[in-house]
Amino acid sequence: MAKAIRKLAIGAALSLSCMACTATSGNNPSTAPSFVDRFTPLNRLEPIDLDGDPLSETETFQTSGTSKAIGEVHAGNYRVIAYTEGSSCGILVVDAKSSKKPSINFVSAWPKNDSGGIRRYAAGPYSFASGAGGDGSHSRASLYCSESAMVIEYSVKGNAQVSARQGHASIKERHSTPESLIVIVGSDAARKKIRGQI
To answer: 108 near 128, Cβ under 8 Å?
Structure first.
């Protein structure tokens, strides 16, 4: 009787072992690809229409394609416009009353691979560029650029309170410093992920 019970126990153990082998065959967890967040690339987002079309009136760099506006924020007396040029991000800041006078205008190419760039925000890695306004506005902008998102840290003398925004842009105002704000540009999913960490 004891031999029969032992044989049954060994048989059951072997049966369970074989079932586990079959269930995991071809699906080894160590070789399975890890989940990576993917967001819509900036250059595939729908363009927006700009009042007065300051992007076409301003000299842009045209390094690898045509310029395409994808987000805009009215901050104080200025318009902060996010645009793409091929595989580059651009920022254009113009006076709200005279779009022919750019205060800030520069571009930055996104990193060519995942091992380069800065990982300050989600949806990265990012390249980094910054610049100051050249019209006596005492404005400054920093641009973090990735294939899937832009994060613009903008500050201006006075008040940067946002009165309007359009396109694929969200804002994060810094209530402790009303003269500065963060503009997040990208798909809904990318912006939500970035806002969650700021």
So the answer is: yes
